[in-house]
Amino acid sequence: MIKFKSDFLWGGAIAANQAEGAWQADGKGMALSDTIRGGIVAGKPDESVLPGKYYPSHEAIDFYHRYHEDLELMAGMGFNCFRTSIAWSRIFPTGEEETPNESGLAYYEEMFQTMQKLGMQPVVTISHYETPLNLVKKYNGWANKKLIVFFERYCQAIFTRFGDLVPYWMTFNEMNNVHTMPYASAAMQVSGSEQEQLEMKYQAAHNMFVANAQANQLAKQLMPNAQMGIMLSLSGAVIYPATPNPKDVFETMTLQRRSLFFADVQLNGEYPRYFKRICDDHQLHLDITDEELALIKQYPSDYLGFSYYRSSVYAAGSSTEGNTSGILGQENPYLEKSDWGWPIDPLGLRYLCNILEDRYHKPMFIVENGLGDNDTIEADGAIHDAARIKYLKDHLIEIGEALEDGCQIIGYTWWGPIDIVSAGTGEMKKRYGFVYVDKDNDGNGTLARSKKDSYDVYREIITSNGESLFR
Ligand code: BG6
Questions:
Q1: How many domains does the chain have?
Q2: Is the pLDDT of residue 471 over 90?
């Protein structure tokens, strides 16, 4: 029998901009996510909010006003943790204020207290694709080192206020997606030649590494018991070579490294040796100071949080576009696909955990995994989401195997335990939840919540601490 440790963290994860709505409530400023209509991959951001257009995140599922009910539903599954993000522009509306917005702080304080009362440890992402719009427009986001200062001020405010309430933090959601989704990941528009674009991406990455190290430093002073993590999209690290041709194998390793690079720096505390070759080959000239390198060295992160949805297949020389699920590569004839064309690969998750264990020897936290699917509502209101149940069980069984392999996995938070707006496409139809929300792609619906079949299944898994998976 595979054993999950008694302190294993079981829960679910959402992001403020995909769930809260209330996009102008209580002094909130505009965030980059507020200007996106069709999702960060499918749609282009608008210059500002255009009158008469529908923005799915503006109301989302109204988690802002309904979180008590929603968190109770989560606690009903036995969750002992819950991951969400703080919307930066609720705390600093333009990102540049000297003092934080008290209403924003009070709002999250009550939310985290509610989680604690319900027996759920808050797991908080500090920046999840929702940078204040002003910082995007004025500075082009993380392309500019000024953001390090604004981010530090933001961290100072939230660590001071929530340090006693939040034990697990992650600085930037999926920072490695700067390669494929720089607007979401680094809040910047890239332009110029291929070389210039790459330079911008690595500079933004470096600026975020410094901000991450500063956040870790600040955490040590303000909340010494907190665990500080990074968060990466590691679907992009489970890439299989298209053939045994050594070229495919070598280039696949290089592409996998492109994601792991972000953990190499922030967990090991220094730039890996292969980075010099990247800079030389692409003639990258980056603004990196000795003081910044010393800070990164002194304040590495405590754990590796990551998302995993699927694997991909790569052929040398092919293009490396991606979306919220990772790299878009070749077909894998051995795997089935979700309704949105994402290959389903539970064993890929065990493979990934083993790679990470061998490479970092640090705790890992699987903070996103899930199946976005079409749900059918039966005449009696029931939702028999068998595919979601299978995806959940199959991935958890492989996590159990990875634990037996010796991987230090501290927890698992299913992505979107209640239906939320898709980040990639802006749809409501792409549902991840164990709890259904009555709302469609055009914004129609009562917002009523109801349980799907998967709700009881996840509850049974959690309350048996994983044992029901193997019955
Ligand atoms: C991750 C993001 O990339 O994938 C989430 O951190 C996102 O914000 C999730 O929602 C699933 O992607 P999508 O496009 O199905 O919402």
A1: 1
A2: no
